[in-house]
């Protein structure tokens, strides 16, 4: 805990402006919650104050705890408890994370692999490009019902769906990255006697990696949308599904708790991927290791990244 | 070691703007083995194309290039090239960069290591064998590129303004280094430059390229080393003037309007 605290202090010193923004947002929200008119529905304020969100609303999350161990189950008349709320969040986070990590990993590996394979042959690239571009433009969230009809509203179907979305982003990203590898490296390799396959494996592939960073982070963000979206629409567990429950009861505070939890997870995903990626391209001339994270997700992610490394 | 022969080489490009660029027009040339040839000319007049055709990176529209009795049809390590830009692979350590061409030519690990070590030492980078290229200066990276080319033991060294981006001192050091190596190995060198001083320091022979043609072919009879005194002899000054005239500089100033040709190779 103390190490995380120190990391946070360091991060605040490095990106003071970003923390100021966070503070303004949090305080502004609190002020707004006390100004806006009261909601007609009891327990569903239009702008719930933070003290309401992290007490009553958070406790209400325990309504999503349905196992007969660990904490009472409010659905069958039990009491709402913090313990139940944590258990519920943990249970549904686990369901979500399994889908997300599997989907993201499969999608990234398959996407980079497909992109590299297609890029090897100019004809294949030209043939694949138009449909890929179409897929990239397709609003995938709107395709969730179709995918659930095809693959089932379950973990397997959702994971496949996420992997597909990530795959599209990475195929397009990889093809672009390969195309942007400077010719001079390829020509130099060729005049040193490397065959075309060797040049591809040893020069084009590593040369394209730095540019994959953007696609990877884009895919990470997308995978969260797709996971939560798919769960929201058709699944019985996962953070997206308990968001749907909160909406059913118009429980604004609960929605915010879940949104914040998802947000923190997403930042952690960014931070971890960024760190892994930086390790992969340790040879690359650096800008500033922490800059990247700050650009992507603000200083909150920097703090999350520190926590991830220390944790 | 083989002679290099250009037989009626022409090379046309379709420039991005749509019009046809004749980068080389009916160039014939014979270079005996072991000669240090500097190709001099203004930007966009075909110097680099000449080199790229010999490297096999560019197919001529007509004619053929022979190295010995073999026709050039694709790139190969018998004609390794040092480029103007930085071509050291940033994702490989210095050692692996120098070993790259050897590995590509099927040289075994131990042998590869031995050869690379020798050339890394020759270019004075033995302390940096395990460094990433980003940790080196521009001049040091150029030496890595040079070592990689030397390691594959090419018959012909192709150098496309290799030292153009370096400071004067580093450039002069590398000239001496190159000359020393060349004098011990008797390789054929094609060295493209637009720097007359550089050409006079290095060349046995200067080819002047203008509008895709070789317009003059000068023998450089100066003694080596070509220090400031040698380059100030009447003979050297006469050569300089002649080259300047071909470059369109007369009486100390450029004559006529700038008519830089569209850069055919970018």
Portion of residues within helices of chain A: over 70%
Largest interface, Cβ cutoff 8 Å: A-B, 24 and 30 residues
Class from helix and strand fractions of chain A: mainly alpha
Number of E-type strands of chain B: 12
Outline type of chain A:
globular
Report a brief summary of the structure.
With 311 residues, chain A is mainly α. Chain A has helices spanning 2-14, 16-35, 50-60, 82-120, 122-137, 144-151, 155-179, 183-191, 196-234, 239-248, 252-280, 289-297, 299-310.
Describe this structure in words.
The complex is a heterodimer of chains A (311) and B (266). With 311 residues, chain A is mainly α. Chain A is built from 13 helices and no strands. Chain B is of the alpha/beta class and 266 residues long. Chain B has seven helices and twelve strands. Chain B has a six-stranded mixed sheet, sandwiched between helices. In chain B, strands 2-1-4-5 form a four-stranded antiparallel sheet, with helices on one face. In chain B, strands 11-12 form a two-stranded antiparallel sheet. In chain B, strand 9 (205-210) and strand 10 (213-219) form a beta hairpin. Chain A binds chain B through residues 182, 184-185, 187-195, 198, 202-203, 206-207, 209, 281-286, and chain B through 55-57, 74-77, 79-81, 83, 85-87, 89-92, 100-101, 104-105, 132-134, 145, 148-149, 152, 158.
């Amino acid at each position: 805990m103390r190490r995380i605290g120190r990391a946070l202090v360091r991060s605040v010193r490095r990106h003071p402006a970003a923390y100021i923004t966070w503070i303004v947002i949090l305080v502004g929200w609190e002020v707004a919650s006390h100004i806006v008119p009261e909601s007609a529905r009891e327990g569903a304020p239009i702008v719930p104050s933070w003290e309401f969100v992290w007490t009553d609303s958070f406790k209400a999350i325990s309504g999503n705890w349905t196992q007969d161990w660990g904490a009472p189950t409010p659905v069958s008349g039990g009491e709402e408890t913090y313990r139940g709320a944590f258990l519920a969040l943990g249970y549904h986070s686990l369901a979500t994370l399994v889908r997300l990590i599997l989907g993201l990993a499969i999608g990234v590996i398959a996407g980079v692999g497909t992109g590299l394979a297609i890029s090897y042959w100019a004809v294949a690239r030209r043939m694949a490009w138009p449909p890929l571009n179409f897929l990239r433009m397709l609003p995938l969230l709107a395709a969730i019902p179709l995918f659930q009809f095809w693959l089932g509203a379950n973990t397997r179907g959702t994971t496949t769906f996420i992997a597909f979305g990530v795959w599209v982003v990475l195929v397009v990203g990889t093809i672009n990255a390969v195309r942007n590898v400077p010719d001079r490296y390829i020509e130099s390799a060729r005049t040193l006697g490397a065959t075309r396959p060797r040049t591809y494996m040893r020069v084009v592939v590593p040369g394209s990696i730095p540019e994959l960073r953007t696609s990877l982070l884009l895919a990470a963000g997308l995978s969260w949308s797709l996971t939560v979206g798919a769960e929201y629409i058709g699944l019985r567990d996962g953070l997206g599904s308990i968001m749907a429950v909160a909406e059913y009861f118009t429980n604004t505070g609960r929605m915010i708790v879940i949104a914040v939890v998802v947000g923190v997870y997403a930042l952690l995903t960014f931070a971890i991927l960024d760190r892994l990626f930086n390790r992969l391209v340790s040879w690359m001339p650096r800008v500033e290791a922490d800059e990247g994270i700050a650009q992507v997700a603000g200083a909150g992610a920097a703090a999350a990244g520190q926590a991830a490394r220390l944790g | 070691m083989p002679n290099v022969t250009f037989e009626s080489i022409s090379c046309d490009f379709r420039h991005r703007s749509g019009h046809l660029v004749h980068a080389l027009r009916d160039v014939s040339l014979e270079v005996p083995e072991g000669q240090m040839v500097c190709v001099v000319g203004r930007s966009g007049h075909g110097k680099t194309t000449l080199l790229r055709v010999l490297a096999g990176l560019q197919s001529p529209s007509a004619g053929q290039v022979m190295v010995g009795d073999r026709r050039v049809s694709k790139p190969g390590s018998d004609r390794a090239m040092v480029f103007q830009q930085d071509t050291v692979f940033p994702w490989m350590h210095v050692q692996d960069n120098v070993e790259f061409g050897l590995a590509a030519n099927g040289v075994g690990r131990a042998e590869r290591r031995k050869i690379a070590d020798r050339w890394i030492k020759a270019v004075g980078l033995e302390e940096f064998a395990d460094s990433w290229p980003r940790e080196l200066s521009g001049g040091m990276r150029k030496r890595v590129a040079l070592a990689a080319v030397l390691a594959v033991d090419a018959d012909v060294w192709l150098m496309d303004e290799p030292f153009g981006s370096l400071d004067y001192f580093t450039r002069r050091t590398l000239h001496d280094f190159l000359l020393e190596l060349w004098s011990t190995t008797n390789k054929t060198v094609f060295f493209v430059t637009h720097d007359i001083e550089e050409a006079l320091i290095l060349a046995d022979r200067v080819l002047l390229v203008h509008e895709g043609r070789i317009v003059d072919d000068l023998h450089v009879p100066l003694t080596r080393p070509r220090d400031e005194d040698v380059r100030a002899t009447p003979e050297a000054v006469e050569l300089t003037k002649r080259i300047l005239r071909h470059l369109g500089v007369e009486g100390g100033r450029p004559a006529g309007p700038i008519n830089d040709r569209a850069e055919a190779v970018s």
